[in-house]
Automatic annotation (TrEMBL), chain A:
Family: Belongs to the TRAPP small subunits family. BET3 subfamily.
Biased composition, class Polar residues, residue ranges: 37-47
Name of the protein in its database record: Trafficking protein particle complex subunit
Compositionally skewed regions (Low complexity) per UniProt: 1-11, 19-29
Domain of life: Eukaryota
Pfam families: TRAPP
Keywords: Endoplasmic reticulum, ER-Golgi transport, Golgi apparatus, Transport
Gene Ontology biological-process annotations: endoplasmic reticulum to Golgi vesicle-mediated transport
Localization (cell): Endoplasmic reticulum; Golgi apparatus, cis-Golgi network
Task performed by this protein: Plays a key role in the late stages of endoplasmic reticulum to Golgi traffic.
Organism: Cladonia borealis
Subunit structure of this chain's protein: Part of the multisubunit TRAPP (transport protein particle) complex.
Automatic annotation (TrEMBL), chain B:
Key words of the record: Endoplasmic reticulum, ER-Golgi transport, Golgi apparatus, Transport
Subunit field text: Part of the multisubunit transport protein particle (TRAPP) complex.
Similarity annotation: Belongs to the TRAPP small subunits family. TRAPPC4 subfamily.
Domain of life of the native organism: Eukaryota
Pfam families according to UniProt: Sybindin
PANTHER family attached to this UniProt entry: TRAFFICKING PROTEIN PARTICLE COMPLEX SUBUNIT, TRAFFICKING PROTEIN PARTICLE COMPLEX SUBUNIT 4
Entry's Gene Ontology BP terms: endoplasmic reticulum to Golgi vesicle-mediated transport
UniProt entry tagged with the keyword Endoplasmic reticulum: yes
Entry protein name: Trafficking protein particle complex subunit
Length: 236, 143
């Protein structure tokens, strides 16, 4: 290495004799290796997110402000060419779904130890626990506020978050009061649940009361498919 | 304890339009929206004039020349804070209210958080953000 660097840094011996007849500017600025601009920026130490250890990012946190701006742009983007609130929520949900599919194996990998591999949650209750604790803690650094099951419909379960991080800076205008931008988080939950084979549809609903302690309270309603609940009952 | 010493807040966009106003003291006379719009526009103009009044002999670079910052009368004090993008925050307080700069910076912080990070807010348009008003009121009340 030490023998090659002086040759690279000192360009004077490099130009062949023919270049003396060529433009003098070419001599002053020897041709540099052309940088390929792909538009992707890499850190100065050349370590991208793909070079990092999967486990090492466990404690690193992101700036909340930069996430807020990014999410704000995501909502603005999703709002383009939508026909209504349902359509907008569907788009946010679809944006979160692949995230859930990828987070499941990542989180299972991280919670595993060489001697005790973490089992994949294959039943409803362990799955809800996994979502409300492991997933929530990974995404928002805290657990969800509660898990409830519907008293009227055995296929419905609810995860309740008093103050969803994604909605922290968002004020929904009066004419769109049905909208809850946490549909994005609902999409993540749906992605996780469908990846373990418990098919369901997840939606986010506003449950905060005006002037109450938690005006941004959100209920994530998880509607499992009939056969999922049937299978759950058969295994007991 | 006296009545609340922060009277009201006005936010003016970079074009001189009124985008937000809120009274924190119910004892104040009501000002019509029309008058408020005129007030905002007038202040915007006066601010621009005062900015160009800085004597050039002082050798202050033009980017450091600020316009009117404080306007005081026997009954109230008007403090103006202008952001880098030209948005102005006007805070009407009692003349002896201390730490107005701290209050106005906090208001700016709330604006940056709950207005600028809200995907439903359109730039330079009137502010109708419920979360901003909620946090603003609870901050001023706690003062």
């Amino acid at each position: 290495m030490t023998t090659t660097t002086p040759a690279l840094s000192g360009p004077k011996p490099l130009p062949p004799p023919t270049s003396l007849q060529q433009q003098s500017s070419a001599q002053r600025a020897p041709p540099q290796p052309q940088q390929q601009h792909t538009g992707l920026r890499t850190p100065s130490n050349r370590k991208t997110i793909y070079d990092r250890n999967l486990n090492r990012t466990r404690t690193t946190e992101l700036s909340r402000a930069s996430f807020a701006y990014l999410f704000s742009e995501m909502v603005t983007y999703a709002q383009k060419r939508v026909t209504g609130i349902q359509d907008l929520e569907r788009r946010l949900n679809e944006a979160g779904y692949p995230l859930g599919q990828r987070l499941l194996p990542l989180l299972l990998y991280r919670t595993s130890t060489p001697t005790h591999p973490a089992p994949r949650p294959t039943r409803i209750l362990p799955l809800l626990q996994f979502i409300a604790h492991t997933l929530w803690r990974h995404l928002f650094s805290r657990s969800a506020d509660s898990i409830e099951s519907s008293s009227t419909n055995p296929t419905e379960y609810m995860i309740i978050d008093n103050e969803p991080l994604v909605n922290q800076y968002i004020s929904v205008p009066k004419e769109m009061s049905q909208l809850n931008c946490a549909a994005f988080v609902a999409g993540i939950v749906e992605g996780v649940a469908c990846s373990v084979g418990l098919g369901c549809a997840v939606s986010a609903h506003n449950a905060g009361e005006e002037g109450g302690m938690w005006p941004g309270k959100t209920v994530f309603l998880i509607r499992f498919e009939e056969e999922v609940v049937k299978r759950e009952g058969a295994g007991k | 304890m006296l009545a609340r010493v922060v009277y009201s807040l006005i936010i003016i966009n970079k074009a001189g339009g009124l985008v937000f106003n809120r009274d924190f003291n119910s004892a104040l006379n009501k000002v019509s929206v029309n008058d408020l719009l005129v007030l905002a526009g007038t202040f915007h103009g006066v601010h621009a004039i005062t900015k160009s009044l800085t004597p050039s002999s002082l050798g202050i670079p033009s980017k450091d020349r600020t316009g009117i910052e404080v306007l005081e009368s026997s009954q109230f004090r008007l403090t103006c804070f202008q952001t880098f993008t030209g948005t102005k925050f006007l805070l009407f307080t009692e003349p002896n209210q201390p730490n107005v700069d701290v209050i106005i910076r906090k208001v700016y912080e709330l604006y940056a958080d709950y207005v600028m990070k809200n995907p439903f807010y359109q730039l330079e348009m009137p502010i109708r953000c419920e979360a901003f008003e909620r946090h603003l009121m609870s901050y001023i009340r706690a003062k």
